[in-house]
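User: Fold both of these, please.

Assistant: Here is the first one.
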Amino acid sequence: MKTQFLTLALLPVLAFSQPKLKKVPTLDPDKQTILANLDKQFPNYAAISRQIWDFAEVGFHENKSSALLQDELKRAGFDVNADVAGMPTAFVATFGSGKPVIGLLAEFDALPGLATDAKPEFTPISGQKCGHGCGHNLFGTASLAAAIELKEWLKKEGRSGTVRLYGCPAEENGEGKVYMVREGLFNDIDVALHWHPSSVNVANPYSTMALIAARVRFKGIAAHAAAAPEQGRSALDGVEAMNHMVNLMREHIPSDARVHYVITKGGEAPNVVPAFAEVYYYARHKNREVLRSIWKRIENAAEGAAKGTGTQVEIEIEGGVFDVLPNVTLAESAYKNLKTVGGIQYTPEESDFAQKVASSLTSKIDLSYASQVIPFDSATAADNSSTDVGDVSWAVPTVGFVTATWVPGTGPHSWQAVAASGMSIGQKGMLVAAKTLALTALDLYKTPALIEKARKEWVDRRGVDFKYESFIGNRKPPVK
């Protein structure tokens, strides 16, 4: 069933100032045209990002958000293949033909909780439970805007080349891209581009931590804990024994590994020996093979705990992502274009908003960082977060960057990020991202040698004999 949306003309008028095109006399005329077009279309894209912000749909349930982006792409002349890789909100939109094929990643899922109005203080929204605390309403919209501009350029030039937008659901707690990689949807593209909302403008090469997530369920025998405890076998004992062994193991794994857990089910009453208990584990490391070995030891701890407590154990892998494979060649190109575009300038109203938000932050960073682009550093930085972009980066040469969509000092998954993502500060940073994506892709279309160089670096880092084997195995997407 086709979902109907209000036309952009009927959407609420948003308070934002029209960004000014940065005058660069020596800039490629095609780039000047793209920048001018994106400036002209900024109000439309700001409205789209705000509508997705209002939808605030969590992973695998982004029905309105996904349909809105798909409808925009269809109107722009893209062929849209929906419901891909077993995920109803995932899609692939394509325009053009032949090589090179440049892919743009788009996310649009929100986070549970964090619902707040776009104001400089926490202001809960009645009846709303979710919020865009990672700015994916901006992420998806900027990628959409860049894809449409690239389509216009390819159409005007009449040249060989394909632009493809990947609608990627459930980045937060579902790792949608992993299912898309496993399905082979990235196998025929030359380069993948992505970006992410942030509080600064950076395009340095970086890596992340590989992650495995699983629920460990113990089954025991219920009994009266006082009258007949000898007849019971405590599932909670299994959980606690496992946790104790894992905590002892921390001394004997690499110091940069991360292991964290929560007990999600521990029993119903103290006087009943628990027949069921569950613990939810995350394990991370910057090297996926080291992570595999750590995870095997965690599984051994679970099996040992079950044996020692007379219980049974079941381990369900719920998710897992690879570390991001950096590409300095592509990062240098993205940086040059981000530097060309530049950061954002606050209006007096935006400055007042930013100062009020900054007063609530524990990390104090000068607000001028929003207007600056941090100098390039070719040394690969290691981020302690994890993302399903990691799997994409092992399937195709990939590059990403961040722009200042939030008040400097703001961290992701915060009410401050939600607020800025729903107003002009976030929308201006989104426009910086759209421009940088489009200009970087344009360089790739025009310079085949750049793609060749990036691919050589990618093969050298990945290894010629690499074979992809996801952490999730044959698990189906949890789209219920």
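And the second sequence with its predicted structure:
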Amino acid sequence: MASQTPHQNVSFPSEGQRAHGYLALPEAGQGPGVIVIQEWWGLTDHIRDVADRLAAEGFVALAPDLFGGSVAHDGAEAAEMMSNLPEELGAKLLAGAVDYLLGLEAVTSSTAGTIGFCMGGGFVLALAAQQGKKISAAVPFYGVGQGVPQSYAGVRAQVQGHYANEDSSYPVAKAHAQEAQIREESGAEVVFHYYDAPHAFHNDANPSGNYRPEAARLAWDRSVDFLRQNIS
């Protein structure tokens, strides 16, 4: 029987207060660090599972709780919670998570990767823009909402995006424009992959029924390979 991935709830200083999150360690006990950024639903079991899956791939994964323990139960509640978390505040809270992660003895890398979904995909880019060289790999999945930054000039990370051709929340034309803007403003290597799928196609726990197993599997494999290659 395979040993269970060690995981725990943790707290750390951020923006003058104590923030909380979920930390998953690989079987080896150490590895490169990755920040996992939640969807607008909150720090759900699904996001914890994403962190566990990264740990199973050899990463030390930290999923910060941006909503202070609250989890949305429907779209209206999720939208309200997201609207109360402006980009600047969310990125500052995440900055504390980066410092905490990179300070762990278990983390073998001097830079962090970051991966996020929906609202978290937007905050992946905001965090990369804010943290500069501290973030070496940024993986946004269909990034929308409050977290999407206006400028990508501070991005030094390599960027691999995963976006949906049938996304009604973030039309694919906007994703193409975002890809071009990141490339132009940051000078970083930017590759977006596009899937014949709807928004949130990676979330196998989403009640909307948008989960697409084949697209999710391909996007995940690409993401893991990308993080391995670009976190140092």
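The helical segments are 45-56, 75-83, 87-102, 119-131, 172-186, 213-230.
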